[in-house]
Design brief:
The protein is an alpha+beta fold and about 230 residues long. The chain is about 45% helix and about 25% strand. The strands form 3 sheets. The protein has a 4-stranded antiparallel beta sheet with strand order 1-8-3-6. A 4-stranded antiparallel beta sheet has the order 2-7-4-5. β4 and β5 form a beta hairpin. α3 crosses α4. The longest helix has 27 residues.
Length: about 230
């Protein structure tokens, strides 16, 4: 792929990012040189707690998991992000990674922005700043919901809600690509507990289980469990 084709591909990526949807093609071209596009292979940890400097990531393609490690080394997944997500260490827009790791679950394409990039963008393109605020607001609501579920709901209810949420985000009837350990790390519990709960869902006819795949066979029933 030559330089012209690479630049065209980058412009197409930028144009499809949700926070840039109000910009014209010419405005996208103006921003082209401000941002760095990066590709991460599956399993690569591209952000770690010891990194310094402010940087903001826009996820164009793939999935990224953000997680922390307890003092005992236990992995706790705080969120899994899909295309269009904004994340990183950027006090200017109220984003913080703190003790967080960022790992590519799929091959990912990222737009990387420095603090100066973000300042310039928010100053010159206020419509982009508004879209960014909207996106961060959605993330805050999601975080508050997760904390509420952690405090007041059982593992069964939380797992049912997680399966429904992932399937809805993927517009699918199944949840694929996750192990029982992944679910455990997302819900802050043990793999054995997840396996037992999924088996209970299976016996109740709520799901069908295949290798790294959970097919939702009774969504209304799962919604009842999630609401309990």
């Amino acid at each position: 792929m030559n330089d012209r084709e690479l630049r065209q591909k980058k412009l197409n990526y930028l144009s499809s990012i949700e926070i840039f949807r109000d910009l014209s093609r010419s405005e996208i071209k103006e921003m082209d040189r401000q941002f760095t596009m990066s590709t991460c292979k599956v399993g690569r940890i591209f952000y770690m707690p010891e990194q310094t400097g402010e940087v903001l990531f826009l996820l164009k393609k793939g999935r990224v998991q953000l997680y922390r490690l307890s003092l005992e080394g236990k992995k706790i997944i705080t969120t899994i992000l899909g295309p269009g997500a904004i994340f990183g260490e950027m006090s200017l827009v109220g984003q913080g990674m703190y003790d967080t790791y960022a790992e590519a679950l799929d091959e990912c394409v990222l737009c990387v922005m420095s603090r100066s990039d973000v300042e310039r963008l928010m100053r010159d393109k206020p419509q982009v700043a508004m879209r960014m605020v909207e996106e961060l607001g959605k993330r805050l609501v999601q975080t508050e919901r997760q904390l509420e579920e952690l405090a007041f709901k059982s593992i069964s209810a939380r797992l049912a809600g997680l399966l429904l949420r992932i399937a809805d985000e993927e517009y699918s009837k199944e949840v694929a690509g996750f192990t029982h350990q992944d679910f455990a790390e997302m819900l802050g519990t043990y793999r054995e507990t997840i396996t037992q709960t999924l088996n209970e869902f299976k016996v109740a006819g709520l799901v069908r289980i295949e290798r790294k795949k959970v097919i939702l066979t009774d969504r209304p029933g799962l919604r009842d469990v999630a609401a309990s």
